[in-house]
């Protein structure tokens, strides 16, 4: 689950995803000024491994 402007949204993390990869949630970002459109919400993956 990831927190978005509209509340929580479920995302799918594929096996083998690497740190630095990005997932785009279309039309879940901030609304464009003067337009009835929203941008995309970009999530950057950070993989932490146990020590």
TrEMBL record:
<protein>
    <recommendedName>
        <fullName>Chaperone DnaJ C-terminal domain-containing protein</fullName>
    </recommendedName>
</protein>
<dbReference type="Pfam" id="PF01556">
    <property type="entry name" value="DnaJ_C"/>
</dbReference>
<dbReference type="GO" id="GO:0006457">
    <property type="term" value="P:protein folding"/>
</dbReference>
<dbReference type="GO" id="GO:0051082">
    <property type="term" value="F:unfolded protein binding"/>
</dbReference>
<dbReference type="InterPro" id="IPR002939">
    <property type="entry name" value="DnaJ_C"/>
</dbReference>
<feature type="domain" description="Chaperone DnaJ C-terminal">
    <location>
        <begin position="2"/>
        <end position="50"/>
    </location>
</feature>
<dbReference type="InterPro" id="IPR008971">
    <property type="entry name" value="HSP40/DnaJ_pept-bd"/>
</dbReference>
């Amino acid at each position: 689950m990831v927190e978005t402007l509209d509340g929580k949204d479920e995302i799918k993390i594929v096996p083998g995803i690497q740190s630095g990869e990005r997932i785009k949630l279309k039309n879940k970002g901030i609304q464009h000024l003067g337009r009835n459109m929203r941008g995309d919400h970009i999530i950057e993956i950070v993989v932490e491994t146990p020590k």
